[in-house]
Write a structure and sequence with these properties.
The structure holds two protein chains of two kinds. Chain A is α/β, with parallel strands linked by helices. Chain A contains eleven helices and ten strands. In chain A, the strands form two sheets. Chain A has a six-stranded mixed β-sheet with strand order 6-7-8-3-9-10, with helices on both faces. Chain A has a four-stranded antiparallel β-sheet with strand order 2-1-4-5, with helices on one face. In chain A, α5 packs across α7 (149-161). The longest helix of chain A is centred in the last third of the chain and has 18 residues, at 179-196. Chain B has one domain: MetI-like fold (Orthogonal Bundle), CATH 1.10.3720.10. Chain B has nine helices and no strands. In chain B, α3 (50-62) crosses α5 (83-107) and α5 crosses α7 (124-154). Classes of the chains: A alpha/beta, B mainly alpha. The interface between A and B is medium-sized, with 23 and 17 residues.
């Protein structure tokens, strides 16, 4: 285990989130969860289970309705949201690269917002591009529309890493890719995760991806955490929702019965 | 006398009128852009003003142009006879297309991109100027293009309040019941409109971000 159980970097304490306007059922309820320094936590769940919302609470794209959420031991509500977000990397499925900026401008955006000196930004650009396996010089002046889906996703990861955040949030980062590219990027992700020693929270609806990439899996269903396990133990869980996921993944023969 | 003979014999006058016309259009458009684009930007951060501002801009556009020129004449400062009044009217006409396109362009940016910008820790202002504005450029330009074509047309009516321009020929031709004289104003005005439409269209395509 390459993460530090004594060092909690994100902590949810009985968190609830509901849409601000409607008084319908909460999107998240009773969520208590500790995320440790250096782990890759896979948040697994179906569409609508609240996993993306949980992720967005961390960088305050959504504001929790009740409970407490601590990032680096500080309640998120006490953080300046701009500071908080600049210290957390964020990667989403549709990548969200800016179409009017070159690859270099996209990757260098947060360091530029943070007013790093130009030379340092350039060095960092080269570094993170190499980290994601792309030649920095070749792509510097290219625009996102000139890249393939896999390349765009790599640039998205490079951009999230640029300001060297301690935490990386990834929302189905490989969801929009073809199976071959996805497998390739997942392998690279594993190598990368070992090298950068970041705390990574990864949202996915794919059990195989959760098992492969997560050092721990948290299963969400209808806004509640229903299971929590290491990948190896996950397949043995008796929890019904977990069984459904395992059966659907066809990882364990006969699990469907 | 046919049109071509008339135009040939009055070419100096026509060139002067075309130049006056262009000056009228360029000044009006410059002022309209300076007002409408920042106003559009302001509406993004103050959406509750949107309906009211767009309604006012629409009202200007529904007033028949000749009537608008007429209404302006008695006003102090803005009104009177001549170019200044004409410019005020033309600006009021040009506002809506620019304002509407600016607002639609700025608010029509892909939500995923806006969320990415927010998640990266950009402030509201940075998102507005570094993300929304560059992505809305071709939209805004399309609004300017529409407004320019409208303004070139409406500017012919400015001659009615003594502002000069190609409308001079049109009004004279109407009074003289002479098609040739009317066309001597109408043809250059139409050509100007087509040319402006073409050139701004080129620029718009070049600035489009895909």
């Amino acid at each position: 285990m390459n993460y530090d159980l004594s060092n909690v970097i994100i902590e949810f304490r009985n968190v609830e989130y509901r849409f601000p306007i409607t008084a319908s059922r909460p999107i998240l309820a009773g969520v208590s969860l500790k995320i440790y320094q250096g782990e890759t936590l896979a948040l697994l769940g179906q569409s609508g289970s609240g996993k993306t919302t949980l992720l967005k609470l961390i960088n305050r794209l959504r504001i929790l309705s009740s409970g407490d959420l601590l990032v680096e031991s500080r309640p998120v509500r006490d953080w300046d949201s701009i500071r908080l977000r600049r210290s957390i990397g964020y990667v989403i499925q549709e990548v969200g690269l800016f179409p009017h900026l070159t690859v270099e401008q996209n990757v260098s955006l947060v360091p530029a917002l943070e007013r790093w000196p130009a030379a340092k930004i350039k060095v960092r650009y080269d570094e993170v591009m190499q980290l994601v396996g792309m030649n920095p010089a070749d792509y510097a002046t290219r625009y996102p529309r000139e890249l393939s889906g896999g390349q765009r996703q790599r640039v998205g990861v490079a951009r999230a890493l640029a300001a060297d955040p301690a935490i990386l949030l990834m929302d189905e980062p490989f969801g929009a890719l073809d199976p071959v590219t996805r497998a390739e990027l997942q392998q690279e992700f594993l190598a990368l995760a070992r090298r950068v020693s970041k705390t990574i929270v990864l949202v996915t609806h794919d059990v195989r991806e959760a098992l492969l990439l997560g050092t721990r899996i948290v299963l969400l269903d209808a806004g509640r955490i229903v299971a929590e396990a290491a990948p190896r133990e996950f397949l043995q869980l008796d929890q019904p929702v977990a069984r459904k996921f395992i059966a659907a993944s066809e990882l364990v023969p006969g699990a469907a019965q | 006398m046919n049109v071509w003979q008339f135009m040939l014999s009055h070419r100096v006058e026509i060139v002067t009128a075309t130049r006056e016309h262009l000056v009228l259009v360029l000044i009006s458009m410059a002022i309209a852009v300076i007002i409408a684009v920042p106003l559009g930007l302001a509406l993004v951060t103050n959406p509750r003003w949107r309906a009211a501002v767009l309604a006012v801009a629409s009202i200007f556009q529904t007033i028949p142009s000749l009537a608008l020129f007429g209404f302006l004449i008695p006003l102090p400062f803005l009104g009177g006879i001549g170019m200044r009044t004409a410019i005020v009217a033309l600006v009021l006409y040009a506002l809506l297309p620019i304002l509407r396109n600016t607002y639609v362009g700025l608010t029509g940016v892909d939500p995923a991109i806006l969320e990415a910008a927010e998640a990266m820790g950009m402030t509201e202002e940075q998102i507005l100027f570094r993300v929304r504005l560059p992505l809305a450029t071709s939209f805004i330009l399309a609004g300017i293009r529409t407004a320019t074509v409208i303004t070139i047309g409406v500017a012919t009516i400015a001659a009615a309040i003594g502002a000069g321009g190609l409308g001079t020929f049109i009004f004279r031709g109407v009074a003289m019941v002479s098609d040739a004289v009317i066309l001597a104003g109408a043809i250059p005005a139409a050509l100007l409109a087509l040319l402006a439409d073409f050139l701004l269209g080129l620029l718009e395509r070049r600035l489009r971000v895909t």
